[in-house]
């Protein structure tokens, strides 16, 4: 491999004669004959006669890596090259080649995972930093490149080398400004490799995973980091992607950097450099990718609260200045896709920066027929949409009321935006795109403002008057700056006229969109700010004029996709809110709209449409003034009956139903009116009562059902299905009207009346199946069948709207089963399980309903009340609950608490348990509560189990609980009465409102004594806990207790438990009536009773000296055992350390204390109470100095060290507590 050279001169001659092009393949023979050993010898000499060999090595090393391997195999090391560098610092050519050789050799060693590189590199960095500076400052690009690569290797090899580079190399330490360093590493097309080497050099600092020191040292030199990013937008895509990923991983997502450190690192210059990446001018096919990753990085940096530099708005001392720089950088940001999105995300994270954007939008939003203006409007809408009130309101928690209202206005209805949405935009400019854009913007702003108003209530730091002040400020702002409603409607009118003149699909779509947003604005204003609509008739007139535009013709083919339906619904809702008489039953449009709404509700698959249609249908029926507002259930029944109609007959049925309503409303025949009224009264007040009673059902039903049943058979032929379903629903909902139905149907001799009469007369549930053959798939019949067979009812078949009627159906079935003695416990359980599911589904539906605007800040009370009545939906659960417990008199009559309670009673108790989560249950159960109290007073034969369940589940009032307690205390014939006392006492204690009298406390105390004395009563401990909780709540009642508990403590048969001890301690501590009894019987008390209360007796000074000695001798052995072997001592010594300390301090003789302090204990464990006892003994031993004090002192520390060793060995958690308490 080696060749022998005759002389250096010969070699140089050959070099001059045969210069080989570097791009050609190297001469293999020359490489084979190259003498590495000789080259190393020359390299170590002072002379520079090795230059030719060095140049040969450098020129061929990259293409023939075997040269480098041979150099290393023969012992070559980077240190040799660095020493050669130190000898040839003045020879630039030699120096350049030596640096290149050092790079090749170092890279090879790293590749081979060798460890001989560090010494040479360290020598280079520390001793020849000037040489590195010279190379970096060289005019030759190759010198800069190789120097940077060597520095990259240094940093990657060792963290300390990186620190030394930043510390020693003059280029990085004494550069005064970024321009000087930028000049050294400036990027040109000819010097792209220098830039790439510089980037890798900087990245090597960030990629050092040893610790964060090196990264932080680099970032402290901000110029280097700024230079890295300054020209990043000029780099290729690979470099950009690599730099951004490294910074994301090693800085942003690193836990080693605080938010403040990141903020200082990413200066304004750095952020502006990063923003230039949006304008990257590289390969067009990669441009989208670069913009995407740059946008992701900037969002992470500027908007992420965890990894970015976002400080809490409105509160932090450090402001979001970098984000402000971004906002102010772009002039027309809405024209740029990525920057506009970035700005929106920034303001979403930093809402305190909204003002600079608003200032820029003032001029830009002035209406003009340009694409830029439309883009600006879309940007504004996206900006307002980004401010989610539920999120934004959390930023205002620490702000005063005035600032809260100001910020809400800025984020939703800023006057700077509103001032551009008036005359010029809405009326003067004849451009549909502009009008539609402005109205949609107004709708969005008003909607956001209303949602902010809904969220104000969560600001717990604000008082009620401050919250009202915020609402007042916002509403006043709306009144002042929001465009007049007449102007908005006039704009719509002009747009319609313009679209008529210039007909096109585009114009029609724009007008419909403007109409939709106009209606939404009207609804929001009516519901939230009714006083802003000064001329209600004019609004309705406008809607009538616009009817040809939004009129909706419903048929079977377009029920799902016709966009006019949504508009039609909004118009109907507005009319019902403003002037319901326009949609009265006499109006021409009533039939049509009602037919449309009921078809949508019955047939549409869109749940939102269905819910809205049902609500509007209900409001329309309510507006007829035929149905009582106190009984919304009737309207629900009629709508439910219509829902079951088949699509092909639904429209006809709805029309017949409306005709019936009109006939009732408009009839001029007074005799007929009187007859209907009389029959109606009979229907309302007559009940079927098998027992004589004066109870009257006030169902407040209208005369619609009465009139329908009295109609001739011929008129009912086409709607007989509707009549049958309506009748079934009414009869099952109001079973108390059985006799009324009989009387009514008996007066008619038609075929359908006979069937109805047979249905009413049927007693068994199974008999209902075939009497009325309509709709065999009727869901309520399926439910009946499941009860008859005992099968599980399939809940998957249930429609959302059917839950309430299935719940009422369950009540009807329970009454029918009870009348035939078929309401077994199994049937009750089956019914209750179904009701529980129905209730759960209904409750979840109610929780999903949007919050209605209950409160409107305006002085126009009449308008407010009307709006409230029309927008406020009844709670379905409350309607059902009130109906069950107030209108179902059969249920009430069969409810009793006597010795033989009915099955209905058990059913009602379980029913109450389900409804117990409803706040209005107490009001609905008034009659039942009164009946329970009355029957308990009148009879001593009440069923104890049932009564206890009632006391547990029924929500009695405070006074009723007191009354019940009196009743139960007077009748204590058995142990079950004690259970009732416990339940009532627990309820009274939980309510914390009304206390018992002293007489009742005495009786309860006696009852407790009876419970304890009775061995068959298993709830004495629970009774004691309840009594303790009550006395803890009503502390003044402790004074009403007697010495009964202490007398009880003397009984031998008493089983002492923790509950009894806890109660005894409380009474003994707060009631001195027991002091004399204690003094007289102190030595007669059981140890487990006496010891826990002993410290109280010491505090009250009830222990005399003679007694003290006896007490100490009684407990002496237990105390001594507790000190040495705490794990084997009795529980009373572990839990009552206060009594132990008192006995030691006041009862233990001083000589015993000293003897114990001299003793060497052998502890088996370490406990807190043990050390406290030792501390008390040693402190007493030190009371008087003596000749053994020193021994006692050292013995204390010996004992403590022994305990410390045990504690450390077993790692007791209590040891820290020992130390903290200062017991050492």
Automatic annotation (TrEMBL):
Biological process annotations from GO: maturation of 5.8S rRNA from tricistronic rRNA transcript (SSU-rRNA, 5.8S rRNA, LSU-rRNA); maturation of LSU-rRNA from tricistronic rRNA transcript (SSU-rRNA, 5.8S rRNA, LSU-rRNA)
Domain of life where this protein originates: Eukaryota
Residue ranges of domain URB1 N-terminal in the record: 82-374
InterPro entries: URB1, URB1_N
Chain coiled-coil ranges: none
Region: Disordered, residue numbers: 1-20
GO cellular component, one term: nucleolus
Signal sequence extent: none
Protein name: URB1 N-terminal domain-containing protein
Organism: Polypedilum vanderplanki (Sleeping chironomid midge)
